[in-house]
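Changelog note: in this version the structure field was regenerated for every chain. One regenerated record is shown below for reference.
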Amino acid sequence: MSCGSVLRLTTLSFSTCSMASFRPSFFAQPPVSVMLSVAPAFFAMNDKCAAGTGRFFEAMARSFELTLPEFSKLSLTAKNVIPITAQCTVFAESEVITLVGEGKATDEIAAGIEMAVAKRCFVMAKKAGATDSITLTGGCAKNDGLKEAIEHVLKLKVVNLKTDPQLMGALGAAEYARQKGLAKK
């Protein structure tokens, strides 16, 4: 499973539209050193597939016959973590279905799913220089289990945005357009 992308907030160059989610970070949130995007649109910036993004979590929720909000909280009750080894959405879904069929605890399987995604985020966050806290953008930022897993794996605080994290891309695009308009004056 992979995370979408990360950006050091000290980076001032926004040469692609995909950086739109990060632009409002300079004025729309508490101070953090790194923003981690777990949004489907950003998978192309990574060297992995889109597993670990919203579509992946939707598939995992379906495997448990749960809604996405129900799934995002399932791992919070786990006493143990059952590792999920598959990195591809299709294979991970098959692995999960097998574990459920074996009667394994669903909250522990869900914890394994969240942990697998968090571990994939680890490398990207560390490369970006995350040292004290990070924030998440995109719909996966609403996944409580993922946030807890990321805090556990990265040993960093996940700071919640004051703005709906799914709006960060739109806000960033608007800010980008505003700045381009001001530059033409």
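Spot check on this record: Confidence is low (pLDDT under 50) at residues 1-20, 40-47. The longest strand covers residues 133-137.
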